[in-house]
Amino acid sequence: MGRPLRDEGSHGMLQGTFHSKQALEYGTRLVAGVSPGKGGQTHLGLPVFNTVEEARAQTGAEASVIYVPAPGAAKAILEAMEAEIPLVVCITEGIPQQDMVRVKNQLIQQSKTRLVGPNCPGIIKGANAKPVVSFIAGLTAPPGRRMGHAGAIIAGGKGGAKEKIEALKAAGVTVTKSPAQMGAAMLQEMQKRGLA
């Protein structure tokens, strides 16, 4: 994703810290934080700047993640757009509609910035995806007999447990034959990817 920038408003520091720590642990290359009035400091080992423009000029950041509370989130998005950050991800929910109308109006008048969000849980790079391990019950269920919620979903003769397992495997999911095997299967898959 290039060189991301962590964007934090002064009231968003706690939430920004929480999510930034998780991102760093995951391996995301954060290059800076932004918090008006706190420029010149460091936080989580990263330099903090007063504005997104200063941060971009000093770090070459290519992405910004907005952790600002709803009343100030639109302003933070617009600031990132003014700094021509190519990718802006806003996790904030509950931003006033009139604020987002203003943001959208600015977005459609430019071509340098893409916005993901608001109310976005974040983004993840597919090559770094964590494995999925599954168990599907019902292999021994008699044909045509409903057994729990899974049976309700596949009712009508359009597939059963075997077809679900095949579909999951085709999507790259590891499917175990017993729920007791799920933990060991997850550990094995994480070890294959160097995650454990």
If you had to describe this structure to a student in words, what would you say it looks like?
With 196 residues, the chain is α/β, with parallel strands linked by helices. The chain is built from seven helices and nine strands; from the N terminus they run βαβββαβαβαββααβα. It has helices at 13-26, 52-59, 70-82, 97-107, 148-153, 161-170, 182-192; strands at 4-7, 33-34, 42-43, 46-49, 63-66, 87-90, 114-116, 133-135, 174-176. The strands form two sheets. The protein has a seven-stranded mixed sheet, with helices on both faces. It has a two-stranded parallel sheet with strand order 8-9. Helix 3 (70-82) runs parallel beside helix 4 (97-107).
Order of strands in the sheet with most strands: 3-4-2-1-5-6-7
* Largest sheet data: 7 strands, mixed
**Residue fraction in strands:** 5-15%
Shape: elongated
Unreliable spans are 7-13
**Would you list the SSEs in sequence order as H and E?**
EHEEEHEHEHEEHHEH
How many beta-strand runs? 9
Question: What is this structure, in a nutshell?
Answer:
By secondary structure, this protein is of the alpha/beta class.
